Amino acid sequence: MIGSLVHLFRNLRAGFVLAREGALALIDPNVLPPAARMALRLARLIERRQAGDGAARLSAALTRLGPSYVKFGQFLATRPDIVGVAAARDLEHLQDRMPPFPRKDAVRMVEIALGRPIGELFLEFSEPIAAASIAQVHKAVIRTPEGPQTVAVKVVRPGVREGFARDLQAMRAAARLVERLVPDAKRLKPVEVVEALARSVAVEMDLRLEAAAVSELGENTRDDPDFRVPKPEWDLTARDVLTITWIDGIRLNDVAGIEAAGFDRVALARTVIQSFLRHAIRDGFFHADMHPGNLFVDPQGRLVAVDFGIMGRLGMKERRFLAEILLGFIRRDYLRVARVHFEAGYVPPHHSVEDFAQALRAIGEPIHDRRADEISMAKLLSLLFEITALFDMATRIELVMLQKTMVVVEGVARNLDPRLDMWTTSEPVVREWIERHLGPVGRIEEAGSALSTLGGLAADLPDMALRARRVLNQLEDVTAKGVPLHKDSVSAIGRAEARGNRWSAAALWIIALSLMILAIRGF
Fold it and tell me: How many Å apart are CA 131 and CA 456, to the nearest integer?
């Protein structure tokens, strides 16, 4: 009970800050139930005047709430199906920039993590050059057999794990409350979203896993002539410290610098799109935070990515789905695109394939034969999510993250080449993968894999038969005798349900009364 009260008041504080900074103005009241609309009206009574536009309001509120909420905001920027396209677009502008912590604290963290004095580890170790919610970066120099080498050293912020653990518990409580009070929200899986954030943050806070992501992406792309990633220094990497090759290059948002260096902007834009698609479709492992600050062009003209805290992964089923969807849109075969959705089980079978194909045509046709600067990707995303809701399509987090990353990547490429045609640029990569995996060679490999699976299944048949027999015997017993339920269990279930309902009602009243008190005091 005490824990529930603590989470309640933490969420009240978060709600107050969001309301005070004007971030709640971005919520469409028409999609809320009556009680929630009333709570929203009360909350907006304390809104600060001149709070700025949507991006400024969200940025101010989340930055004021601290690192956990900044990270949550960035995570929600990848989920327009939950917050809406407009809010997701505003959240894209949320900069994960926090005040740096002192160099001496970073030195202490490095020495504890690596077990040696800083002078033995590095020839030089700079003041922080960039600071974010989870970690900050220092420039350093290490000894190598070839001579001194410049590296980037990422150090986890002291106390960040404890802070995230507290805030995530409050977010979990809020997500459970939303699912209980707003039945329509269950399709958006708020609890699952918070858990996905928790997993993402856990990965980001273990820098050994980020080093592994760098290494895996490096292996996948070692034969790609136009893309590279830094190399991790494993001897200087631990849970709280990551050391990788220093990247000298020009950021992709520095168009003037790229032109002054003599690089081909059109070719570079094509490389951005095709590299991302190769990683997603060919490898099933892609950088999910490819904004301009994380992308450089090196002196050799190669695209270089940094900051591998957020990565996406697709299984073979999802990769096949993505490739066929893209190829279907490129060829305007909307019926095939619709069938792929149904075959993958993403759209319930009670819907019509033809009706879904018609809806997909409404997405695909406006973008064909038009330049990239004539296409509103935000409008297309909005229409797509409306259609998925209309056809009861289950939210697939990995596909939504991929979809959102594609929009960001296209934005980066369009900044380099405003006349970029994403579909024409994508077609060679998609066609190559489909010919390789869905053509004769791919079918033979798939048949071989199926035979191997069947062989393993045959070996397990005796054991499976025995287990099936035991299960059938148990089912017969249950059918004959029923499921016994002790009267104490029935009473306990009733008490738990009543207690849950009382807490839900109490939470709503406390929130409403708190907002009224704050409004009366003139906040």
Answer: 51
User: Do residues 245 and 152 lie in contact, with contact meaning Cβ atoms separated by under 8 Å?
Assistant: yes
Burial class of residue 351, CB neighbours in 10 A (0-12, 13-18, 19+): middle
Same domain, 319 and 387: yes
289 is catalytic: yes
Provide the residue-wise pLDDT of the chain in tens; the chain has 523 residues. Answer: 565 667 676 777 777 777 777 777 666 677 666 777 777 777 777 777 665 555 667 777 877 787 778 877 777 776 665 666 666 666 766 666 778 999 999 999 999 999 999 999 999 999 999 888 889 999 999 999 889 999 999 999 998 888 888 888 888 888 887 777 766 666 667 777 788 778 778 878 899 999 999 999 999 999 999 999 999 999 999 999 999 999 999 999 899 999 999 999 999 999 999 999 999 989 999 998 888 888 999 999 999 999 898 888 888 888 888 788 777 877 888 898 889 888 878 788 899 999 989 988 888 887 776 665 566 555 565 566 667 777 887 666 676 677 778 778 888 888 899 888 777 788 888 888 888 876 565 556 555 555 655 666 666 777 777 777 777 777 766 666 665 655 565 565 555 555 555 544 444 444 444 444 444 444 4
Domain boundary among 395, 411, 438: 438
- Separation of alpha carbons 381 and 227, rounded Å: 28
- Structure tokens belonging to residue 352: 């019509």
CA-nearest of 251, 208, 247 to 228 is 247
Residue 329 tokens read as: 């849109």
Catalytic pick among 81, 90, 240, 289: 289
Find out whether 26 and 56 touch, Cβ atoms under 8 Å. Answer: no
Q: Measured between alpha carbons, how far is 191 from 174 in angstroms, rounded to an integer? A: 9
Examine residue 420 and state whether it is found in any structural domain, yes or no.
yes
Answer yes or no: is 514 within a domain: no
Question: Is 308 found in the same domain as 179?
Answer: no
Helix extents (H) in 392-523 = 397-416, 422-437, 440-481, 487-520
Q: Is residue 488 part of a domain?
A: no
Domain residues for 407? 249-438
What secondary structure letter does DSSP report for 254?
-
Nearest in space to 409 (alpha carbons), one of 521, 306, 519, 271: 271
| Whether 181 and 278 share a structural domain | no
Burial label, 149 (beta-carbon count in 10 A; 0-12, 13-18, 19+)? middle
Contact 288, 311 (CB under 8 A): yes
3: Cβ contacts below 8 Å, ≥ 6 apart: 169
Identify any residues that bridge with 151 across adjacent strands, giving them in sequence order. 140, 245
pTM to 2 decimals?
Answer: 0.71
Evaluate whether 131 touches 138 at the Cβ level (below 8 Å).
no
